[in-house]
């Protein structure tokens, strides 16, 4: 049994929250996860004391987090757009910034319209849109079979219907497939970027983070193939890096898209860029 477990055994839950090694929010999340308690139960059972087995399990979770493993992978879940998503190391962890892409897509998706989510990962974008707009036909693709398995489970758990397919961008799409909106959060980090070896990114699937090139190659592929699968007046919306908005606008304009613009996230960063098929 680890030293942390020895220190925690016999402590009340209230005491554990005070002496545990992480910040208050992470302590609470891991304690709830280890003991399978809700936040309310954690409060109402604050005087409950940990036995040795519980202390040992909790100490293991603390050690994993202290070594940098993301909370979402430790507990296997992350909230996105008000929904709960299962996450594994096979998929990126959904981030609040991406909710901007969901909002923009929803604003441009007509009644009974069709939307394609490219590089769906955990299915966060597709499932959030399908949940909000059950009238819409939502399809999603990914080149990773493991990611699609996670995404299918998330669609089922959230009571949504999404048509998933294994595809390297547009490769597996029928030539007649057309959509009112194409949305994507593709790999856009430049190869060798220092961030890939820092923080949570160290644990996330590298192929979902970087294109192993200049950060724009997947964005170029999505833009170049979009016109064949967008209906007239349809929108292409893409999340990208903090310094890529101007480059993505240029790519869209060069491909003949109209109303090309970028939108800022809550931090004021140009996070999503899109255009309308003229």
TrEMBL record:
EC number: 2.1.1.297
Protein name, UniProt field: Release factor glutamine methyltransferase
Chain sites annotated for binding substrate: 185-188
Stored SUPFAM superfamilies: S-adenosyl-L-methionine-dependent methyltransferases
Protein source organism: Herbaspirillum chlorophenolicum
Residues in Release factor glutamine methyltransferase N-terminal domain copies: 17-76
Gene3D superfamilies: DNA helicase RuvA subunit, C-terminal domain (1.10.8.10), Vaccinia Virus protein VP39 (3.40.50.150)
Lineage: Bacteria, Pseudomonadati, Pseudomonadota, Betaproteobacteria, Burkholderiales
Residues making up the signal peptide according to the UniProt record: none
Family annotation (NCBIfam families): hemK_fam, RF_mod_PrmC
Record flagged with keyword S-adenosyl-L-methionine: yes
InterPro entries cross-referenced by the UniProt entry: DNA_methylase_N6_adenine_CS, HemK-like, N5-glutamine_MTase, PrmC_N, RF_methyltr_PrmC, SAM-dependent_MTases_sf, Small_mtfrase_dom
Residues annotated for S-adenosyl-L-methionine binding in this entry: 119-123, 142, 169, 185
Name of the coding gene: prmC
Residue span, Methyltransferase small domain: 98-193
Family, as annotated: Belongs to the protein N5-glutamine methyltransferase family. PrmC subfamily.
Superkingdom per UniProt: Bacteria
HAMAP family, A to Z: RF_methyltr_PrmC (MF_02126)
